[in-house]
Specification:
The complex is a heterodimer of chains A (about 375) and B (about 150). With about 375 residues, chain A is an alpha/beta fold. Chain A contains 13 helices and eleven strands. In chain A, the strands form two sheets. Chain A has a nine-stranded mixed beta sheet with strand order 3-2-4-7-1-8-11-10-9. Chain A has a two-stranded antiparallel sheet with strand order 5-6. In chain A, a hairpin with a 2-residue loop joins strand 5 (about 195) and strand 6. In chain A, helix 3 (about 85-100) packs across helix 13 (about 330-340). Chain B is mainly β. Chain B contains one helix and eight strands, in the order αββββββββ. In chain B, the strands form two sheets. A five-stranded antiparallel beta sheet of chain B has the order 6-5-4-7-8, with no helix packed on it. In chain B, strand 1 (about 40-45) and strand 2 (about 55) form a beta hairpin. The termini of chain B are far apart. The chains are: A alpha/beta (about 375), B mainly beta (about 150). The interface of A and B includes residues 125, 134, 198 and 247 of A.
Chain lengths: ~375, ~150
Amino acid sequence: MNRVAICAVAQIKNEPDIWYQRFQGMVLECFESIVRQTGVTFDMEQGIRNVVTCSDDVFDARTISDNAVTDVVGAHFRGEEKVAQDGLNALGYAAAAILSGHDDLILVMGHCKESQSESRLMNTNLAFDPFYCRPLGLDFLTAAALQARAYMRKAKLTEHHLAQVVMHARANGARNPYARDNPPVTETDVLTSPLLADPIRQLHAYPVTDWAAGMLLCCEERVHEFTEKPVWLTGFGSCMDSYFLGDRDLTGNFALKRAARRAYSMADIADPSTAFDLVELNDAYAYQLPLWAEGTGLTPEGSGGAWIESGLDRVNRSGGMLNGNPIMLGGLARALECALQLRGEAGERQVDGARRALAHGTTGAAGQHHAVLILER
Amino acid sequence: MHPNFDLSDCYTIQGKLALPYTYFAGSVGSIFLTTLRDRRKIMGIKCHTCGKVFVPPRQTCERCLEDIRDQWVELGDTGTLENFTVVRYADRHLPRRPPFVLGLIRLDGADTPLLHLVAGVVVDRVAEGLRVRAVFAAQPENTILGIDHFQPL
C-alpha cells in the first residue's frame, strides 16, 4: 500500500488573547514557515493542488469560515476543503485523499481564536438542538461536568488525581516554547480553585486560547523532495457516539474504543499499552486524560486513577490541551507534538529515541466524536 | 508573540451575531412538544425490537434502525436523578442565575435519562438517587421548558 507522511509542521505560540492579529495573519505565519521549510510551490503540475483547512463558523463569527483564509493558504484556483471538526480529522481526511491516489501533496491548516467571543461557553451552547438541550443552557462545560461526575465515581478518581493531572500539564507546558504561558500551580491551588460546574473546577478546564498551525502531507514517492525526516501516518480511526447525553454511556468510551480499534488494526498494533513511546491525549478537562487513556486501551477500564499514579511520564509532553489549545485544534496540536517528537525536535521535553506515537482528538460535547492517529518515524 | 508594529495604532470593534430563525420541531418532536404544552404529559417512544423507551422521542431506533415514530408511550411525571452538576457561573445562555442544578433524570417508564433543571433543593445537598417530579410551566412554552423544572417529591 502507498504511505503518507507529514513532511513539515508549523505553529504559532498558543496565547490567551492575540487581539492585535487577525486569524488570517496567524494562519499566514504558519503557511510561510511551511513554504520556507520545504520549498513547496503552488505549481499546478508539481505543487500543492489541494488544501484542507480546519475552523469553526461560530468561533469565527461568520459562515463558511474557510472562505476567510483561502487566499492566505494559497487555495485560489485549486481545491480547498474544510473540516469543521477537531483538526485531527483534517489530517485523517488529507491522508485518505493521498492514499486514494486523488492527491499527492496536501497542505493542512487550522485556526481558532477563542478570545474573539465574549463567552466560549455561549458559543458551545449553539452546538445543541433548540428544542431539548439549548433552552436548558447545556454547554460543553456542563456536559463535561456530568461526564466527570459519572467517571470519577466509576474509577474512584479523587480531587488529588485531578490536581496531579493539572500540575503535570503545567510542568510540561513550561518546557514547550509554543505552549500557552500559564503560572505554575500547586496541589492546593488546584484543590481550592473555584468550582465552575461540580465537580469541574476552574483549573480543571482548559484556558481560553488562540492558536494556528499547519502541516504538509505527502505521498511516499515524493517525500524526499520536502524532508529528510518524514513522520509516517500508519493508522487512523474515528467514531461518533449518540447525540443525547442520556442515550450515551458517558464513562464507557463507546466511540473512542472503536476509533482506536480501527487505527490499531491499520497500524498492526496488538497491545496499545506497550506500543507507544509517547501519547498525546486531547484533555480539554483534567478528568478526560485518564478517561481517554482507558478508551485508547493504555490502561484497563476503570483504572484511570492508578494510571495517573504511575507517573504520566510519556503522556502529553506538549502540556496537552489542558495547558491551552483552542477548541477545534486539540487533536491537531496532539499530532503536531507527536511529529516534533518523532523528528527529534521537541527540545527540553524530547522523548529520546521516540519511534511510534499516538495522537487523539475529540469533537463535540463530552467526547461525542473521537479520532485516533498513529504516527511513526 | 511580539508583533512588529505599533500596538497603539491597533483597533478592535465590537460585533454581535443575532439571527432570528423559525425551526421545525420535526413530525415526532411536534407531537411531543405540543402534548407537553397542551396536555402536560411527557411522552416517550418505544422500540419494539430492543424494548428501549426513548425520551426525547425520535423517529428511528439508532441501534435497531426500526421506524418507531408511532410507538408512543405515556411516561409518568416522576423520576430519579441519575447524575447532576451544580452550575456556578453566570452567562447569557443559561436559563437561571447560579447556582442551579442541571441533571439527568430517568423518568419512570423511560430508559434514557432526560436532561433538565432541578430546583427546590439546597444545591450542596443534591445527590444521585433523588426522587423528583416535573413542575410544568405556568405559561405555554414550545420547548422542553414546557416542564419548568423538576423538584423533589
